[in-house]
Design a protein that fits this description.
Blueprint lengths: L13 E4 L2 E5 L12 E5 L2 E4 L5 H11 L25 E5 L15 E5 L26 H11 L6 H9 L62 E7 L32 E5 L18 E5 L7 E2 L3 E3 L1
Parallel strand pairs: 7-10
Antiparallel strand pairs: 1-4, 2-3, 4-11, 5-6, 7-8, 8-9
């Protein structure tokens, strides 16, 4: 195993992950995580935290980039979409005020016109006080553009999971075998009955500043909870196996054909879970967990971090 980096850090906010072999996936949780298997990963640098709103703002200021959520969508890509949803916007978690069917995630997700990375809760919301929160409402195209500008790349699913484990091969969580330690919350997740009751025992109802919870064994923050993170892997799981969990799909009010309930939009793998993952619903606050997500859709709980390969 390589124990030291082969070069200086690409920037001061990156951490070296040594090469090695680890057990990827799990045979004891959701079907799309199986089978557990040995995977070899070469060493690489990775951002210590998710990309923040302040970092993304610098990218936009330097390049003039306009995110997918800020553009008027091409109606030809969304047959059956509600006309009022063919406007700039993004998917936002909206807690219901009554009991709802947990089998339908659209009971707590809504497409909100005007929601984007600058307005994380929709029109009227701002980034005031959130410079160190993860940037959200970013689609796959947006994160790829940021990575290219920064001279970096997105991690593969294997690279991401290997880094998230922090050297604890096969452990249930990024920090060990128990979800909490003496009652202490170790990540920004949901406490209470999702999606109505959030006890906020961890101190946060939505995103939290990066680094608010302990780092893993490699010195990486927020690998679990806070926001889901993009990887480069295309999802190939059977749709019946890879449940949408707490994703914000589909966006733009698409009327789904019962014979084809999944529009043919490519999906990439997300990792890490988010502040919406809850014991009674989406137990994906684990390194092995994964979720497919449409490449054209950003949400209020989806961000990313970058890597540099040596």
């Amino acid at each position: 195993m390589t124990t030291t980096a082969l070069a200086l850090p690409p920037d001061k906010h990156m951490v070296w992950i040594p090469s090695g072999v680890f057990r990827m996936g799990s045979d004891h949780h959701y079907p799309e995580e199986a089978p557990a298997r040995a995977v070899t990963v070469a060493g690489f640098w990775i951002d210590a935290t998710p990309v923040t709103a302040a970092q993304f703002r610098r990218f936009v200021k330097a390049t003039g980039y306009v995110t997918v959520a800020e553009r008027v969508p091409d109606a030809a890509r969304y047959p059956g979409a509600a006309p009022e949803s063919l406007v700039p916007g993004s998917s936002l978690f909206v807690p219901p005020d009554r009991p709802v069917d947990l089998r339908n995630h659209l009971n707590w997700w809504a497409f909100i016109p005007g929601a984007d990375w600058r307005h994380p809760e929709g029109p009227g919301s701002t980034l005031h006080g959130r410079d160190r929160h993860p940037v959200v409402h970013v689609a796959a195209e947006d994160v790829a553009a940021y990575a290219a500008w920064a001279g970096k790349r997105l991690p593969t699913e294997a690279e991401w999971e290997y880094a998230a484990r922090g050297g604890l091969d096969g452990a249930e969580y990024a920090w060990g075998a128990e979800f909490t330690i003496k009652g202490r919350q170790l990540a920004n997740t949901w406490q209470g009955e999702f999606p109505r009751q959030n006890l906020t025992l961890d101190g946060y109802a939505r995103t939290s500043p990066v680094g608010a919870f302990p780092a893993n064994g490699y010195g990486l923050f927020d690998m679990i909870g806070n926001v889901w993170e993009w990887t480069t892997d295309l999802d190939t799981s059977p749709r019946s196996a890879a449940s949408p969990c707490c994703s914000g799909e589909p966006g733009r009010g698409v009327t789904l054909d019962p014979a084809n309930p999944h529009p043919e939009i490519p999906r990439q793998v997300l990792k890490g879970g988010s502040h919406l993952c809850a014991p009674n619903y989406c137990q994906r606050y684990r390194p092995a967990a994964r979720m497919p997500h449409a490449v054209d859709t950003g949400t209020s709980h989806l961000g990313f971090r970058c890597i540099v390969r040596v």
